[in-house]
Design a protein that fits this description.
The protein has 17 helices and 22 strands. The protein is an alpha+beta fold. The protein folds into three domains: 180 residues, FAD/NAD(P)-binding domain; 119 residues; 111 residues, protoporphyrinogen ix oxidase, domain 3, CATH 1.10.3110. Helix 2 packs parallel to helix 10, helix 5 packs antiparallel against helix 6 and helix 8 packs across helix 9.
């Protein structure tokens, strides 16, 4: 055996002797586990609940399996698609059929969101569709944006303060806030402009107005689909990851809650202890904080956040819309016709049925009352007299802030810096990477690469 062959054999043996314990079976944990397993490391994945996937899940309603959690991914960066291709799921890729965006909770009833906007900020306040939502008073106030001096690049990254200063309260309250709350669960005051809309500050400075910056930014955006999914939703991705881990001999366990992590590293379960060279914490934010707090000083307790999402199977074909409500105007933040967004789901339902999803601002404790409240609010938002509900359910889904949340990147960087200081310890998940598969997957790949490189090469 040559020296090179001997070195490779020693490296392979080292990998086989390295035990990796991944705590959490959402997408981040599954991806991190796969990255370690495919180089020969011995992997144990522990999921506290009875199913893998985290916020990705599906349930049977009216005889049809439908996604009730995360159901699509951004194509930006190509990271999710690369994983899809690696798992031989390319034939299942399906593009989104974008829904028409509307705003509810405005005078005169729901109205179409103006087409020429970024984060709800209008390029042209004189557009009749803008005037329909903010009225003449709002239009004239927004027009002052053209008369104000431009900002210096980077001077104001707070979305709320930027838009209120330049275009006024009505633009923020009736156009911007419905989108930031409905899509990300964030008030405009919590959104970092330069992360949510990269280049907008520069475009504002270049054009001299916020509206001009919006127009320029929209003109520079590439075309093509930006959201995809798989036939059957994202559950096939979870299933494929679990199968691939099985192919590599990984030990994947559900119903296995970790009580604590001891230095060394030792993972403590209720009736078992696992020694490991590498521990990857891939749990939700609150659970990760509980496990990491004894080992890294910067981790602080975090209240768990959830979205109360009601899925409705109804008779008929409601309009293909996603309706975003003005905060405080009603019991829901978003209503969307999911079956119109995903043609594969419409085909499975057949003619005469549709799936509507409504996100409640604060759900009643009684599930029946919550479903009834969501159905009534959805009919109003979609402009339908009443909905004939065939089947329904409510899911309380874990959430994490997007990268565009103010302070998110800095907080995540502090956690990562502290974790890097503890050899063999890693952390992944939406609470550090930002929400969305396009953020979660490459972050999990990078963290797994850091850990396995350190373990194998020092």
């Amino acid at each position: 055996m040559s020296p090179a062959e001997s070195s490779i054999e020693n490296l392979a043996e080292h990998a086989r002797e390295t035990h990796v314990v991944v705590i959490g079976g959402g997408i981040s944990g599954l991806v991190a586990a796969l990255e370690c397993a495919k180089v020969g490391m011995r992997v144990t994945l522990l999921e506290a609940s009875e199913e893998l996937g985290g916020a990705i899940r599906s349930r049977t309603l009216d005889g049809v399996e439908i996604p009730v959690g995360a159901d699509g991914y951004a194509t930006a960066g190509g990271h999710v698609r690369a994983l899809v291709d690696e798992l031989d799921l390319t034939d299942l890729v399906r593009p989104e059929a974008p829904l028409e965006a509307w705003v509810a909770g405005v005078p005169g009833g729901p109205a179409p969101l103006p087409a020429e906007t970024v984060l709800g900020i209008p390029a042209n306040p004189w557009d009749p569709s803008v005037r329909r939502i903010i009225g003449w008073r709002g239009v004239w106030r927004a027009y002052l944006d053209r008369l104000r001096p431009p900002l210096t690049i980077g001077q104001q990254n707070n979305l709320d303060k930027l838009v209120r200063r330049r275009m006024g309260d009505l633009v923020v309250d009736r156009l911007v806030a419905p989108l930031t709350v409905g899509r990300h669960g964030l008030l405009p005051d919590d959104v970092d402009v330069e992360i949510a809309a990269p280049g907008l500050g520069t475009a504002l400075t270049r054009t001299g107005s916020l509206g001009g910056g919006v127009a320029q930014l929209r003109g520079s955006r590439p075309g093509g689909p930006t959201i995809e999914t798989l036939e059957g939703g994202l559950v096939p991705l979870v299933q494929a990851l679990a199968r691939r881990l099985g192919d590599y001999g990984a030990d994947v366990r559900t119903g296995s809650r970790v009580e604590a992590i001891a230095p060394g590293w030792r993972v403590l379960l209720e009736d078992e202890e696992l020694d490991a060279e590498i521990v990857v914490v891939a749990a939700s934010g609150a659970e990760a904080h509980r496990l990491l707090a004894p080992h890294v000083d910067v981790v602080a307790p975090e209240a768990p956040a959830t979205w109360d999402v009601v899925s409705l199977v109804v008779d008929g074909q409601p309009p293909a819309r996603a309706v975003y409500a003005v905060p405080g105007s009603g019991p829901v933040s978003t209503v969307s016709v999911v079956s119109a967004r995903w043609p594969w789901l419409a085909a499975r339902l057949g003619a005469g049925r549709a799936v509507i999803r409504a996100t409640l601002v604060s759900a009643p404790a009684d599930d029946g009352a919550a479903i009834a409240e969501a159905a009534d609010a959805a009919s109003l938002a979609l402009g339908i007299e009443s909905l004939a509900v065939r089947d329904a359910r409510i899911d309380r889904l874990p959430t994490a802030p997007p990268r565009s949340a103010r302070g998110q990147l800095d907080a995540a960087a502090r956690v990562r810096a502290a974790v890097v200081g503890r050899t063999g310890l890693g952390v992944v998940g939406a609470w550090v990477s930002g929400s969305g598969l396009a953020q979660v997957i490459p972050d999990a790949v990078d963290e797994a690469e850091r850990l396995r490189r350190s373990a194998l090469f020092g």
